[in-house]
């Protein structure tokens, strides 16, 4: 349960493209062994939330980075 200001939020993720999610989680897990920002973030999150949720959180960060690159038209 995630509580903030008396609000109860579900810890479940929404249904989405399973293939995309799998690819992003695999990328996050592969990047966990690198000395990059995302690798460090993964290792910090493992301590607090566990390996699977950390992988999903880093996968979400990767997805946001891709979205911003595509949206802003960065080459």
Can you tell me about this structure?
It is a single chain. This protein is mostly helical. The protein has one domain. Helix content is 65%, strand content 8%. The protein has three helices and two strands, in the order ββααα. The protein has helices at 18-31, 37-49, 51-72, and strands at residues 2-4, 7-9. The longest helix has 22 residues, at 51-72. It is globular and about 45 Å long. The termini are far apart. The mean pLDDT is 86.
Rg result: 14 Å
Global morphology: globular
What is the helix tally? 3
Overall pLDDT score: 86
Helix/strand structural class: mainly alpha
Stretches with pLDDT under 50, minimum 5 residues? none
Labels describing this entry:
75 residues; mainly alpha; two-stranded antiparallel ribbon; globular
Secondary structure elements and pairings:
Elements: E1 2-4, E2 7-9, H1 18-31, H2 37-49, H3 51-72
Antiparallel strand pairs: 1-2
How do you describe this structure in short?
By secondary structure, this protein is mainly alpha-helical. It contains three helices and two strands.
């Amino acid at each position: 349960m995630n509580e903030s200001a008396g609000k109860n939020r579900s810890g479940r993720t929404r249904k989405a493209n399973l293939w995309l999610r799998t690819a992003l989680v695999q990328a996050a897990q592969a990047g966990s062994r690198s000395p990059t920002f995302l690798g460090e973030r993964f290792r910090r999150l493992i301590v607090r939330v566990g390996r699977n949720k950390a992988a999903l959180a880093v996968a979400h960060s990767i997805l946001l980075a891709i979205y911003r690159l595509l949206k802003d038209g960065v080459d």
